[in-house]
Each structure stands twice: as C-alpha cells, then as structure tokens.
Design brief:
two-stranded antiparallel ribbon, 16 helices, globular
C-alpha cells in the first residue's frame, strides 16, 4: 500500500522556522509510524471494494488499486494528536493507537461525503473518490469507514473502550450537526434578514472541524486513563485548535498557493462559499463590503476577473485581517488549555509545536 514518505531534512544551518518545521515533521512521522500498521490492518477488514476506495482516499493506491508511492497520505495531524494526548497524561502513546485509527477513519469518511455535498472534484491534487468511483460507491465507502471507526474503538483493549466509544459518538453527532449548518448556510442570503454572521460561522466550525480535533486529543487522554477533568480541558483545547485550523483553511481557500492546496486560486470565492473572511468582510460594512455583496449576489459563474476583484474587496473590508485574528485568538485559547492541564513536559512541548504548525501552515 506504499511506504510513508520520509520527512524533509533541514539544511545544515536552519532558520528557527525551518528547525521548527523539521521538528514537527519528525513528530508527525513518529506518530504515523506508530499508527499506520493498525490503520492498514483496520482497512484490510473492509469489503474489498470499500477497502480499495479507502486506500485510494488515504493516498495509498491509485484508482486501479495498485500501490501509489506518489499519493498524498495527508499530514496525519489528528492521529498525532491522539498519540500525543496519551503521552501528555503520562501513558505510552501506543495505548492511543485505536483512537488514532478511529479519528483517521472518521476524518476520511467526512472528506468523502463532504466532497460529494460540496461538489468538489479534487482532493489532494487527485480526483475525489466520487469522481474516481462514482457517487454511490463513495457514499458507501464513507459509511463503511464510519462503522469501522466505531468498531475499532469498541474492540480496543483495556478498560477505557466504553468511554472512548461514548466520546467518539458525541463527536460524530457534533460533526454531522456542523455539516448540516454548513449546508443550510448555502441557502441563506449574503446580507439582510437571515444572513449568516461570523458568530454563526464560528459555531458551525466548532462542530464541523473543532469537534474532531478535540476528540483526537481527548481520545488519547481517555485511552491513557486520564481523569475526566483533564480529558475535558484537552478536548476544549483541541476544539479551539480546530477553529483556528478552519480559519487558516478559509484563508488558503481564497489566497492559498495552488501548488500547496491542490485547488484553484480564489476557489472558495468562485464557488461563493460562505467562509469566515467573506462573512467578516460583509459584517464590517463600508463601501468595499457593499460592492462585495453585489458581486456575490450576481447571477452566473464568477470568472477570473470577478474572483480576483472579490478577493481584493474581502481584504479591503478587513476580512483577511479578521480571519488571521480569529485564528490567533483560538490558538491562544488552545495553548491556554495545554497550560491549564497537568501534562508531561515533552508531550506538552510536542503538542505546542504541532499547534504552531497548524497556525502557520502556508498562510
């Protein structure tokens, strides 16, 4: 199913930023190596067709089902959070592997379904699963991954399996609620009565994105035997991290480098997605916000010139700056949670480095 790509090495005289990135690459690689055999084993339990689609979605194989060394497996941030969550409460990271596998499966399932609902034809610079295999098969593969995630946790050894399943079940409910809100936002107007405000978008992001990152670190702590109070603090910290992650993702959706994101520049604007930068810009009022609203309300597809103009108006109206501040504010809250909990120093440092990576990734 392909090997894990080796991490890039820093130069002999790395800058502090390069040194930090290399350190995070090492953390992510260590956690992938710990989790990947169990993830491969879990996917191998699926029906062969579902397993083939899962392997394609995970970047292990191509659409023909053959190993794809060039496939992108993603960074594995959620799996790393689970492993570090156990280590942070003084347990061996290995006890969190079932939780790490479960969150990776849930994340993959959510991407399969999100791409269908959003009509996104590309994922990690390859055709999305629904484009490669068809809509029905992609829905089925997502359902299979969902069920497998719960089964993996339910069968995990040790006395904490029940608590872990209860935690994941709550996360799944929150994730689905967040996605429902996100879809409803598409039907609401850009301004006036019924318009979506930044606060409502933040609430949606807490469920759709924050809940799973909070669950990842929380599951590690649960499987590591942490008391409920510590688990709750770490879950909140991970949720704040998720909102910061979503804010950065929204910035990349408008101004990101295509070579990094795998999606066209100004892609979210072309699709008229209600993202935080746009909503914050509209909420600010002023001439730029008014022109932006007219542009977004105009019928027909948005061409290159219109998308570029919309991006400029979002920035002029303060949407880009407001989103950066939103990310920083939630990152501060996430770090505050790490300080509030009584954690082992090394794992706490690794978590802090990973949090910094999430905030600074190509924005």
């Amino acid at each position: 199913m392909g090997s894990i790509p080796s991490s890039s090495r820093a130069s002999s005289n790395p800058s502090p930023s390069l040194g930090r990135r290399d350190a995070v690459a090492g953390i992510l690689e260590r956690c992938r190596e710990a989790v990947r055999p169990a993830l491969v084993e879990a996917v191998g339990r699926l029906h062969p067709w579902n397993g083939e689609m899962a392997a394609y979605a995970l970047g292990w194989s191509d659409v023909a089902g053959t190993p794809d060394p060039g496939g992108s497996e993603g960074k594995g941030v959620r799996a790393a959070l689970a492993v570090l969550g156990a280590e942070a409460v003084g347990a061996d990271g290995g006890v969190a592997v079932p939780g790490a596998v479960a969150v990776e499966l849930v994340h993959t399932f959510s991407l399969l379904h999100d791409d269908i609902m959003d009509g996104d034809g590309l994922r990690r610079q390859r055709p999305a699963v629904w484009k490669a295999y068809g809509t029905g098969p992609a829905v089925l593969a997502g359902d299979a991954l969902h069920a497998l995630a719960v089964q993996t946790l339910a069968e995990s050894p040790g006395p904490w399996a029940g608590a872990a399943v209860r935690s994941l079940s709550g996360t799944l409910s929150a994730l689905v609620s967040g996605q429902a809100e996100d879809l409803q936002f598409e039907r609401r107007p850009w301004r006036g009565s019924g318009a979506v405000g930044p606060e409502q978008y933040r609430s949606m992001a807490e469920r759709k994105t924050g809940a799973l990152l909070g669950s990842a670190i929380g599951l590690g702590a649960v499987l590591g035997g942490a008391p409920a109070g510590t688990v709750s603090v770490l879950e909140r910290s991970g949720c704040h991290l998720g909102v910061a992650f979503q804010a950065v993702d929204d910035l990349l959706g408008i101004w990101g480098d295509t070579a990094v994101t795998g999606k066209p520049v100004h892609g979210d604007l072309r699709q008229r997605k209600k993202t935080y930068p746009v909503l914050a810009a509209l909420a600010g009022g002023g001439k730029a916000a008014q022109e932006l609203a007219v542009l977004l309300e105009s019928p027909g597809p948005m061409d290159d010139a219109a998308a570029a103009r919309a991006a400029l108006l979002v920035e002029e109206a303060g949407g880009r700056a407001a989103t950066r501040e939103e990310a920083r504010r939630h990152m501060d809250a996430a770090r505050c949670g790490l300080r509030e909990a009584s954690l082992t120093p090394r794992a706490a440092g690794d978590l802090d480095a990973l949090f910094t990576y999430v905030l600074e990734r190509s924005w």
